[in-house]
Amino acid sequence: MAEEENQDVFLQENEVEEVVNQDENEMEQDFEENEELDQDQGAGGYHSVMDHSVQGFFEHKDSVFCVSMNPVKTNICASGGGDDLAYIWDITNGEQVCQLTGHKDSVVSVGWSFDGNYVATGGMDNQIRVWKSESGVEFITATETTDEVVWLSWHPKGLFLAAGCNDGSVWMLSMPSGKVVQVFYGHTAPTNAGKFIPPGVGKRLATVDDMGTLIVWNPATGDSECRMTGDDHRFDPGNEETSAGWTSFDSNGDGNVLFLGGSSGKVKVVNINNNYILASLETQRESVEAITLCPVLPICACASVDGTVALYDSSSLKFRRSLYHGQPVIDCVFLPKSPYLLTACADCTIRKWDVRSGQLLGEYTGHQEPILCMSITADGKRVISGSDDTELLVFDCEN
To answer: What are the protein's UniProt keywords (predicted)?
Structure first.
């Protein structure tokens, strides 16, 4: 994993910790003004909706838990679900390319290597399974871990795959051999999220768990370079009444600053080079399910079960605004090289926002039950979503 020159420092180390709270009266007023978003929406949004999809895939027989677009072939998608199966399929015609079998329980994570030639699946049966799809589809390896697989993350420049498990262990495999090259032990609770950082380089591997611990690993040696826990009350994602863990995170372009979302709604901003807590952002009320940083503007988006997406200035760490949804927001992702944010909501709707103004630009419907996952094509033209209704739908997000 070759070293690359560091870019400009994202935040200065001498910045003081700051707690950001949105005024409670302002929040109550905003929620009241947006209550109409809940009208005519039954539990889970089960009502007659207009179908805006341009294509779909309907082979799954149970809830679709994960979906991932090939980063090179913009028409090829992989998905996994509660039917213990994963599929590779074509989003242009909805046809099945290959059924990926071998799991004995739900497939909860799926992902492609940076070159688009390998696809991996992780299941509740403790298995990591990998296929090569360069020309045709060839099974490569199956690795039995020590507990249910929670997440997968491919290295952004190499053929290394990381996976986090329910027992806190983190595994790293090398392709094409399929050999386990590292098993990281350090978490004592389920690892809820993990990824190689910084984006596009992957010098380090960051992982977070359900007890509020962050560990940054050296992938080559297996050593931990940074460890922060809830024993430091300033870093604790919970509050006086309840304990909490970290559910999601994202890093800046240099990989030295992480934005971590907690199950209580708190977001902590930390410099992992010196274990310095830069800010505690406390605008949202419930679990932060996804965090993403805008590729063209200093804006961080945090999607929460409380039905909001909070936008912060990722340089000054000041609260900007909330984007209101009728029900829990499951995921959020920026379109490539743009200020446009897509959000996936439990009300069965994907929405497109301009984060500069907070304007709602579009709504894409078609699912009959809550959306559980989404992925965008590498060119940013289409979004694919999976749902409790067992369907995957393709939407044109340019309109």
So the answer is: Cytoplasm, Repeat, WD repeat
Number of Cβ atoms within 10 Å of the Cβ of 2:
7
Mean pLDDT in runs of 10 for the chain (399 residues)? 39 47 51 45 55 97 98 96 98 97 98 97 98 91 97 97 98 95 96 95 96 96 94 86 89 96 96 96 96 98 98 97 96 97 97 98 97 96 98 93
Residues forming a β-bridge with 236: none
Per-residue pLDDT at 23: 52
In terms of Cβ atoms closer than 10 Å to its own Cβ (0-12, 13-18, 19+), residue 221 is exposed
HEC string of 183-246 equals EECCCCCCEEEEEEECCCCCCEEEEEECCCCEEEECCCCCCEEEEECCCCCCCCCCCCCCCCCE
CB atoms < 10 A from the CB of 56, how many? 17
Choose among 218, 278, 206: nearest CA to 249.
Answer: 206
Q: What pLDDT is stored for residue 314 in this prediction? A: 96
**Which H or E run contains 26?**
helix 24-33
Q: Is 398 left (phi over 0), alpha (psi -120 to 50) or beta?
A: alpha
**HSE-up of residue 42 (Cα within 13 Å, Cβ side):** 6
b/e 33-45 (16+ beta carbons within 10 angstroms → b): ebeebeeebeebb
Query: Token digits for 217?
Result: 């690993």
Beta bridge partners of residue 63, listed in sequence order:
none
- pLDDT value, residue 24: 47
Burial (CB count <10 Å: 0-12, 13-18, 19+), residue 222: middle
Q: What is the pLDDT of residue 47?
A: 54
Torsion of CA 353, 193, 227, 162, to 10 degrees: -120
Coil, strand or helix: which one is 376? Answer: strand
Could you tell me where the beta strands, DSSP code E, fall in 70-159? 76-81, 86-90, 96-100, 107-112, 118-123, 127-132, 138-144, 149-154
β-pairing, 392-396 vs 96-100, is unpaired
Residue of 389, 383, 352 lying closest to 367 (CA atoms): 389
Helix, strand, coil share of the chain (percent; to 5):
5, 45, 50
Q: What is the spatial distance between Cα 40 and Cα 348, in angstroms, rounded to a whole number?
A: 13
